[in-house]
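Dear support,

We are seeing what looks like truncated structure output for some complexes. This example has two components. We would appreciate it if you could run it in full and send us the complete token output so we can diff it against ours.
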Amino acid sequence: MKKIPQKVIHRYLRHDKKFPHVWCPGCGIGTILGDFLRAVYNIGIPKDEIVMVSGIGCSGRMPVYVDFNTLHTTHGRAIAFATGIKFSEPRLKVVVISGDGDAAAIGGNHLIHAARRNIDLTIIIINNSIYGMTGGQASPTTPLGDYATTAPFGSIEPEFDLCKLAESAGASFVARTTAYHTMEARQIFEAALNKKGCAVVETIAQCPVSYGKMNQQSSAIEMLKWQKENTVSIKSFDKLSPEKRQDKIVRGIIVDKDREEFTARYENLIKRLQKNESSKEKSKQQAGENQKKSKSKSKKEEKK
Amino acid sequence: MSTDRYNMDRNKPILLQGNEAVALGALDAGLGFFGGYPITPSSEIAEILSNEMPKRGRKFIQMEDELASMASIIGASLVGKKAMTATSGPGFSLMQENIGFGMMTEVPCVVVNVQRGGPSTGLPTSPAQGDMMQARWGTHGDHPSITLYPDSVLECYELAIRAFNLAEKYRTPVFLLLDELIGHMREAVKLPPKDELKIINRVNPNVPPEWYKHFKNNPKYISPLASYGQGYRFHVTGLTHDEKGFPTNKQTEIQAKMDKLLKKITDNLDDLIQVEAFHMDDAEVAIFAAGVVARSAKEAVLRSRKKGKKVGLIRPLTIWPFPDKEVERMLESTKATIIAEMNQGQLINEVLRVTKYQKHAKYIELQRYDGSLITPEDILEKINEVL
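Here is the complete output from our reference environment:
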């Protein structure tokens, strides 16, 4: 494996953007951004070829800091914007950064349809189980019974399993990692970026300020420890007894299969149609020439 | 439908539907990307393009909903494609948030709205002109609007091309508003030869990437637009932003951005506004009507003229920005104006606004919102009341 130089992420941050960033102390998004940038460095994708698209929320602010082609869109629609970009210019590497509110609530429809089409997008969902930017409202991934400013008596709604959702909708790559497991996160991001097809990565992140304070986890360290203790890699998970499996969240690459990718399928359609058209043209031309020939023949005959 | 049908001999007339003419106009304007969602009465546009675009190596996609359709065309435009979507009232409502995004981020694209009766699901297959104000004020916040309104199949073709030209020139979403009756009407039309078409493409930056400001403020308020992947690596956000596209809270920068959005339109009204004056030179009574209603009005004008009545028609081809100056000037010496529209009164308020100092004249409303066309007889009845 390539040795990653120190401060490599500085090469990918915008120097004309005034820092500091918007994220709160203890937030997991910065760590995940670092992992992602190291993955980009490791693969060696040129900055000009990456388009980073985000929606609204804390994660939505990520593109402004990075020196790629960046697009900060409306709430939930990042995948739809990204579809227009990728489909128009398949040579670009299009990455979607989304939060749990963005991807699982308001933009859930676009997530399942991107997976169904299997369009070549790298979709990173940063799941902190809460609406952080608006001050801690319940999201579709807030665990049942947990507290939020709009769930003052504990959430009475069961949460989404985003990986199962993406898998059943047809994504060709599905993985889960956390802000704690940085080495694993980087490797998963690399695999997702290299995948030709819809790659969905759920990244569990801590939000001590909005989520933690309402759920007896007010420090980032405590929440990172929770990520360590309550998740288990997919290999170890298979070895666990059924009782022990129940409380554990699976990490690692859950799905990695080959399925025809959408933009490639469309390019094939174009080729097929243009072949048909050109063969039609040829047969027309031939027909025209035959007519001319027969006409000229008849003229000759007339002359005779 | 095959490509052969659209590779016609342009010296001969061809029978075309309004929606078909929009699709053809878009293709001739250089449409590179279409993202849409089925809805009556606009679906023919998507159907035709799904057939024609892949053959030409261009991109067609049916998105999962109208929000996604609008988002996808903005994305496509940011990589340099001329992009369009087509819908009707309910879908147009769903697109509004991303239309605002397109305006704020100054991304060229075209949105076709073949209007039907509303509100809500309303009358899917009946005509209405109820979206005049949705085209003006549909998305939240202050913003100008460019909205074109054809009254014939040929004009559907011409204004579709013009919509792209204006979108590319002024870096903004442009609306093409059709009446259901225009979209589904068939007429024999002779399209202009392709080499006579005037096609405008967006201006690309000619500065090195480190100097490029995506929203550079200049005296004309229109800044060159790079495409993603060209090496400029710029940031686009719906948040109010500075010249480089980065979010800002500074009062001076906010004001500059808002002025830029407004003035690039209001400084170019002469280029944007088209109004047809039909027998208006000596008119004592004027009819103000757009789209399909103007066709009835023309008939009413001709019949009145036969009887010696001096009646004329003002027909805006550009409804937004509203042709203030033109309408005010044309109505200077008329005794009465009949404002005919298939809604409960939308453009009438604009006519009254621009003529508020012309107290000598009468303004008569003629409104129909029962799912049927305003007929020449409806208009003649109103004319008889004043002449």
